């Protein structure tokens, strides 16, 4: 994953942000929450399949890098989605149906340094 002409390796990362209250407050089974993250990550890849960074990310199947972060609740997740949309950062907000509950979001793969500043307030999912 060397950047053209630089000889340095760039790290492509797919960030996934999951509502932690689903597990810790609303008592969703952990497997159900993991499923939500999988849906969002797959959808973000699908929606951005032709993107050069996505293609590069997929070409390195054995070294894909994902970071799973936690949003405390629906309001913070929705706010993040709005910020990302306003900044032109491609992502998929996963809304569980038929309940119509936003559960998580996933970004398309980006160089780590491109998106990180918008995600600083979110901690690793625990």
TrEMBL record:
Signal peptide: none annotated. Its EC number is 3.1.1.29. One of its GO terms (molecular function) is peptidyl-tRNA hydrolase activity. SUPFAM superfamilies: Peptidyl-tRNA hydrolase II (SSF102462). Keywords: Hydrolase. It catalyses: an N-acyl-L-alpha-aminoacyl-tRNA + H2O = an N-acyl-L-amino acid + a tRNA + H(+). Pfam families: PTH2. Transmembrane segments: none annotated. This is peptidyl-tRNA hydrolase. It comes from Anguilla anguilla (European freshwater eel).
């Amino acid at each position: 994953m060397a950047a053209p002409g630089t000889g340095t390796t760039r790290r492509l990362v797919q960030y996934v942000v999951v509502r932690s209250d689903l597990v810790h407050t609303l008592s969703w089974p952990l497997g159900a929450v993991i499923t939500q993250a999988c849906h969002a990550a797959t959808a973000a890849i699908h929606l951005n399949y032709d993107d050069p960074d996505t293609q590069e990310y997929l070409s390195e199947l054995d070294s894909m890098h994902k970071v799973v972060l936690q949003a405390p609740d629906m309001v913070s997740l929705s706010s993040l989605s709005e910020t990302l949309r306003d900044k032109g950062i491609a992502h998929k907000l996963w809304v569980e149906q038929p309940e119509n509950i936003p559960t998580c979001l996933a970004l398309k793969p980006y160089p780590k340094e491109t998106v990180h500043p918008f995600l600083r307030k979110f901690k690793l999912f625990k």
